[in-house]
Amino acid sequence: MLVSYKWLKELVPDLTATASDLEYKMSTTGIEVEGVTSPAEGLSKLVVGEVLSSEDIPETHLHITKVNIGEEEPIQIVCGANNVRVGMKTITALVGARIVDNIKIKKGKIRGVESMGMLCALDEIGIDEKINPMKHEDGIFEMPSDAEVGTSIFPYLDLDDEIIELSITPNRADALSMRGTAYEVGSIYGLPVQFPTKDLIESDKATADKIKVVVSTDKVPTYKIRVIEGVKIAPSPLWLQTRLMNAGVRPINNVVDVTNYILMYYGQPLHSFDFDKFGSNEILVRQAEDGEKLTTLDGVERELSKEDIAITSNGKPVALAGVMGGLDSEITDGTTTVALESALFNGTLIRKTSQKFALRSEASARFEKGINEGTVTEALDFAAAMIAELAGGSVLKGVVESNDYQPQQVVVSITLSRINAALGTDLSLNTVEKIFKQLGFGVKIDGENFICEIPSRRWDISIEADLVEEVARIYGYDNLPTTLPAGNEAGELTAMQKLRRQVRTNVEASGLSEVIGYSLVTPEKALEFIADKNFPTTSLMMPMTEDRSTLRVNMIPGLLDIINYNQNRKNADVAIYEVGNVFLPSNTEDGRPTEVPNLAFAISGNVVDKSYQGNAVPVDFFHAKGIVEQLLAGIKNVTFVATDQIPAMHPGRTAVIQAGERHIGFVGQIHPATAKKYDISETYAAGIDLQALLELQPEQTIFTDIPKVQAVTRDVAMLLDSNVTNAEIVEVIEQSRVKTLSKVELFDIYQGVNLPFGKKSMAYTLTFQTLENTMTDDEINTAMNKVTKNLVEKLNAEIR
């Protein structure tokens, strides 16, 4: 919301605070101010000049003009505008002037003719194209005929104004108007507001004889129409144009500009129709029909549905309610009869419609957040009187409306003790009463109980807590006492927060660096590491970009993008991890996904770089698996099961991580084809469900005494079928019921020459240890016999 300081001063006449003062004061009382700017900033030496003569330069589009700038002698300026003429007053930039983009005007020669300045169009003094009523090719800007020659142009064009940019949150939509902002400033400083009024003069002809209104949907609480006959469409007066431009709105003509002025002044969206284009004297407001077409004012044909509210006449839509009017009924230079609409529309439907068509407007933004239901008719009458004043014509008698809608009176009560308890203050009855009166509330006092009648302009106030907030911000947040929260218990981390810290410490100790990836990816990347291509994902209705449209269901694609970014910049060795949430489908009624905390890491390049001491050691599956094993230390029954069901992972170098029957993640090599697509070198990655990891954590860690005697080791080598895995062998060894066995470690594996086809040799070191006594040879041999017997019986192993 752009607020003109000059306009605000008119509405709060006693205001002495500067725009900079307002910037601080409003920001500390609940409405954030983005900043204060001046349209004149960077401009200088721009005056009103009058063209005394104009001669064409042969064979060019240029003119030699003599311009009166209020000095003894006129100056000569070469001008290329096609609309320059004798007698017009225009913007004149003198030698040394600064115009848009900090361009300095210098004395010079054009086609050999001396030029002592420049005649300017609005865009050349910084008026943005979006709000500029003139195109550059239209020529220079003509100042009013009563503008005093030689004086600064700034007051005439309101360039000496200061623009306060407010960042309005949804709960304070009442400030999306000049009247709302004036009430807010008046409340802050305890000043009265003063709003101009207009006398509405009606003709003897009744509006009801001209037009009829029917509303067939309950999504339109009220719909009102006035008719103005005999209007003459023309440009608005300069004061209205500059006021709109300073509010960020482009002037169009005297009728449309009035509706935009009322939008900024009252916060009430209005719409003006060319009545003669209706083809009927009845307006029907209804839910649109599926497939119904409407070409809006931007020239785009829209296909409507039942969720949209349509303003129709003669059976056809003429406007998309609350969002944008139709092209077929717009105000043009030939319009003579104006139908002026003021209404209340269901904010939820307006938001859905504007989102569906990507059609955001000032009107839709206000209907979505709420408008003052008490000034719907007042704004309509003010606009009708203003149109009659600026465009001529006569206002027909009366308002045709769907019903005589009146906003419900909101009354909220609160006690003084409740206010003081909530704020930690000791405010008096009189102090709080004064604050409520500053806010414009009707106040009755019953003992220490305040009974507040809330005006319709503050529809955000409905409960006790709202009154407490109003008292706090007007009294001043910086005036509230500072106290520590009461309580005997100190806060602590949740179990998940503790696990996240533990996981970060663990993987960083393994040499990985933390990164933060995007939660939104493309639909293809979202399913890249999921076996089921029909896996449901969650996508945004209106994403900022196609690359960020779908919530991720795993974090590996984001890590691969980061590896690509690094390797493209000659950083070949990358070891990164991310702790974050993935978004899985849920069965909730609102369809929101379930956020599940996950760990993912990816490693590419070398674990050890090449040096004079030895060769480089590239990352491999076992390095990645080792990081996972260390992370899962303490979790029982962890197994790694080979899988080829993850499309983006190498089918021969990938394993699913299981704890018993529960799937908790995967680890392996990125498929070469996937690595090529991401333009990265050989990469290994893993993903682990932290929620499952938390639930599998042992309830307590039991201390085991450190043995007092030395351990004993024995090696065992065996010949087995080549399809027998290390995990199966270790499981058989550990199930041999040898209590003294403390460790099993594979140290050799061979498959090839001198071994039968389909066989392989594997060798293990077994460590035995007791707590108190040194083991004898007989005890060791007995333990080894149990192990070898179990291997022979269960795996058909041949002990070597």
TrEMBL record:
GO terms for biological process: phenylalanyl-tRNA aminoacylation. Pfam families: B3_4 (PF03483), B5 (PF03484), FDX-ACB (PF03147), tRNA_bind (PF01588), tRNA_synthFbeta (PF17759). Its main location: cytoplasm. Binds 2 magnesium ions per tetramer. The keyword Acyltransferase does not apply. Residues 407-482 form the B5 domain. It comes from the Bacteria. Residues 40-154 form the TRNA-binding domain. It is found in: Cytoplasm. Keywords: Aminoacyl-tRNA synthetase, ATP-binding, Cytoplasm, Ligase, Magnesium, Metal-binding, Nucleotide-binding, Protein biosynthesis, RNA-binding, tRNA-binding. It is an enzyme of class 6 (ligase). Belongs to the phenylalanyl-tRNA synthetase beta subunit family. Type 1 subfamily. Tetramer of two alpha and two beta subunits. This is Phenylalanine--tRNA ligase beta subunit. It comes from Lactococcus fujiensis JCM 16395. The gene is pheT.
